[in-house]
Amino acid sequence: MNSEWSPDEDRLLDAPTIRPYVIARGRTEAQDRFDLISLAVTIRPTTGTEIGLDPEHQAIVRLCRRPLSVAEIAAHLDLPAGIVRVLLGDLFDRGFVAVQQPQPEMDVLDERMYKAVLDGLRAL
Amino acid sequence: MAFGRSDSGKTPPRMPTAIKLLIAGGFGVGKTTMVGAVSEIRPLRTEETLTDRSVGVDDLSGVEAKATTTVAMDFGRISIGEDFVLYLFGTPGQERFWFVWDELARGALGAVVLADTRRLADCFPSVDYFERRGTPFVVAVNCFEGAPVFELDEVKLALNLSQDVPIMLCDARKRESGKEVLIELVKHAYGKRPTAAAR
Q: What is the rounded distance in angstroms from the CA atom of residue B180 to the CA atom of residue B163?
């Protein structure tokens, strides 16, 4: 039996699934940290020489010059949302991005928020 | 050089408050169409991966060999001035993706349940889900050509909706129509908000 690697073995690896987990180094624990609509914005650009930052990290930092949600980052980079959460956690911990979580309960902003949203929708 | 956390370093730029709205309903009822009609961006697609934590809860019979399943969701956005941004998520049509629904519904302001009178039963799971979860929702009957025309009261009865759930006709392809549905939803959610109920 031929024990040499053959390109066919690629098929055994579900590449589109496995690759993101390699990017996140198998970590999934940060998945609950950010919501799909948590907004991230870059507060410090990368120099491209930082240790431990992958091209995907750099891509997020470049992308988030304006605030973008986890869902948008995932869509633009074509990565599963769970992986984006892990990468975003790294960037947040190292001070490259600020992350704003959505309001869990809209109590304080309540009246103002509903009114602003209604006015905004009517003006569309 | 120390790595400052974002909350101890310079003030982060002012960010809008993100608000989540859901567009639910059966497969092919026009969820993505409605998202696209009202969104300021072309609808984007994001994927959630079904991992171990949800296996065993969902009915994955027949797919045991596959360790992960991805669920795609289409979404759009509407910026409201500088302060707020609405994200509209089309919920995955299949009921076995409840784990995604739970995440989507968490913190959502409300939901639109799109209904098709030719396949009314398709929206039952969505109605049940939001009722059970206490998420404010409205029902919008998408007017497909050739679909039987019912009085909204009849549809309301068929769906066994509580009296206060707004129901309306819509055309998911039209921006103006989608906008009206969203306005109705936000008005309804305002009346149902926790602080309002406590008063």
A: 20
Conformation bin of residue B52: beta by default, left when phi > 0, alpha when psi is -120 to 50:
alpha
The answer as to whether B198 is a domain residue is no
Domain region containing A59: 7-122
Any domain includes A1: no
Q: What residues have CB less than 8 Å from B134, skipping those under 6 apart? A: none
Residue B81: closest C-alpha in chain A: A120
Answer yes or no: do B70 and A17 touch at CB < 8 A.
yes
Is B109 part of a structural domain of the chain? yes
Tell me: the pLDDT tens digits for B5-49? 444 445 567 789 999 999 999 888 999 999 999 999 999 999 887
d(CA B183, CA B43): 20
B194 to chain A: closest CA residue: A107
Parent domain of B35: 17-190
If one counts the domains in chain B, the total is: 1
Residue B9 DSSP one-character state? S
ipTM: 0.81
